[in-house]
Amino acid sequence: IGARSAAAAMAASTAAGKQRIPKVAKVKNKAPAEVQITAEQLLREAKERELELLPPPPQQKITDEEELNDYKLRKRKTFEDNIRKNRTVISNWIKYAQWEESLKEIQRARSIYERALDVDYRNITLWLKYAEMEMKNRQVNHARNIWDRAITTLPRVNQFWYKYTYMEEMLGNIAGARQVFERWMEWQPEEQAWHSYINFELRYKEVDRARTIYERFVLVHPDVKNWIKYARFEEKHGYFAHARKVYERAVEFFGDEHMDEHLYVAFAKFEENQKEFERVRVIYKYALDRISKQDAQELFKNYTIFEKKFGDRRGIEDIIVSKRRFQYEEEVKANPHNYDAWFDYLRLVESDAEAETVREVYERAIANVPPIQEKRHWKRYIYLWVNYALYEELEAKDPERTRQVYQASLELIPHKKFTFAKMWLLYAQFEIRQKNLPFARRALGTSIGKCPKNKLFKGYIELELQLREFDRCRKLYEKFLEFGPENCTSWIKFAELETILGDIERARAIYELAISQPRLDMPEVLWKSYIDFEIEQEETERTRNLYRRLLQRTQHVKVWISFAQFELSSGKEGSLAKCRQIYEEANKTMRNCEEKEERLMLLESWRSFEDEFGTVSDKERVDKLMPEKVKKRRKVQADDGSDAGWEEYYDYIFPEDAANQPNLKLLAMAKLWKKQQQEKEAAEQDPDKDIDESES
């Protein structure tokens, strides 16, 4: 029975427990709410409502010693618990010691600091707080003891040394401070520590002691700036001989391998202050000769300023030229084929140096022959030879050397691959200036034999023309035309020469020979020159025959127009009729021409002629021949053959073309229909206006 009752009680309790569990409500609408609440909004509301702010603890007033002891006990227990939880948190130790110090419990505070040092003796803040507590409470010997322990334990912490020496100096214990400094210097600290020691001695006028410290300092830290500071220290205190000796020792100490421009600049400025200008100049020149110029920019600058202040004009120019010369030397050394740098360098040298120096630089420059035998690589290089020759002729006044330069350059150029006509012509002109005409002709003849070029022929012919050697000119033109029969300019010049000489038949024969050539570079220019030649000779029939021969070769519209204008300008009887006849013939000939713009150009020229000289009927006749301008569309293909859309263009429809007559009729009907449609739309848009008009 007991077992059954227990089971029943358990079942009842279980049922009651099941009944007490609340049912989880099913969320039917799972869509997001319209107003979303962010975490930032929750934090801001908490801040505004001050939910996390705790009220300040109530202030307690201690009235008797028992309450004070009780407060101390609670507080110490709290501090000790914090320390016990985490011994390595030094801030807990410092707070504890400072609290004891505030209660004037110095001995307890010392004990706490000592316990903390046992935990972490490397903590700098701990030592500083400990020593500050002793100094604050005027416990000088205790403070000395702490500083001694600190610098012994951590000798590389400069802050301890600074504080220790400062304390001893404030106490007036100069000897003790000096002793601390000496102990510090044994560790060879950084530069600022040495400066602090020197400044300490200078505060008490101990210049000799400061000098001794500087002697040790420049050996421990042998930097240029430290030697300069040492010398300036001597200069500041009036020991100029000592300062000069320091600079000289520094120059000797660094030697030629580790030279620094700043040392020499400082040395020179010191001597400048002492009015030793010759010494200054020697120092600058000594340094500039030994220091690489890219590392001596400041040295150059100061030397220039010094020369401007105390030197003459020659000295200033020398320093500027030497500086620029060095820059160019560096450039050509880095890239010997940088011909632009050579040009600048030579220009500088020519303006200042002697002839031998200039020749030496020119020889160095021309020795850098382009490695590839391609003309584009030689174009800049050849001007070195040109300038060299011009220098020898105009500046050095040495014709023999000039001739040697020209000959050497012409031997160097690979004439089988390319040549430079400029060099041949300059050499020939030089020989003419030297009154050596056979040498000039020999040079130009050699050039034409080795490497004939249009420019060489033209230059040689121009030379002979100036010398009035016309037979030689004829021979040269013959050679020239054998070399390049397609050159129309040469034919024209040859014919013009014969015309000037009065040999008209020879000139005409040259023109005939020229137009019979199978290939010409500018045939239109040649034909025009031939026609102009015949017009000048007033050979009308020959000119007319030339036009007819030209029209057999080309039906260009400009030829027809020129022919018509020639007939008009001939001034003979029937010239107008002949001109009109040519226009009619041209119009018939050009009906089959695909270039409609050219045909239109002809008709416009004809119309302008009829406007000036024709009758009304003639004008109407030409006007009837004028085409109508029509806008059309056509397909455009891209480079790859795909369609690129449509484009609009203007076409010309001529009334004479029978094939275009139906198109013209259709076009006229389309225009009439479009006009009627526009009138109809206008009438529909404004019916009231039509009613008013009918009533009126």
Q: What does this molecule look like?
A:
The protein is mainly alpha-helical and 696 residues long. It is 72% helix and 3% strand. The protein has helices at residues 2-20, 39-49, 65-85, 90-102, 106-119, 124-136, 140-153, 158-170, 174-185, 191-203, 207-220, 224-236, 240-254, 261-273, 277-290, 297-310, 313-334, 339-352, 355-366, 375-378, 382-395, 399-412, 421-433, 437-450, 454-466, 470-483, 488-500, 504-515, 523-536, 540-553, 557-569, 575-589, 596-613, 616-625, 661-685, 687-695, and strands at residues 628-637, 643-653. Strands 1-2 form a two-stranded antiparallel sheet. A hairpin with a 5-residue loop joins strand 1 and strand 2. The longest helix is centred in the last third of the chain and has 25 residues, at 661-685. The model is unreliable at 1-18 and 688-696 (pLDDT under 50).
Which consecutive residue ranges, at least 5 long each, have pLDDT under 50? 1-18, 688-696
Major sheet details: 2 strands, antiparallel
Q: How helical, in percent, are the residues?
A: over 70%
Determine the N-to-C terminus distance: 130 Å
Shape, please? flat
Region (Disordered): 675-696
Subcellular location: Nucleus speckle
Coiled coil: 576-603
Function: Involved in pre-mRNA splicing process. As a component of the minor spliceosome, involved in the splicing of U12-type introns in pre-mRNAs.
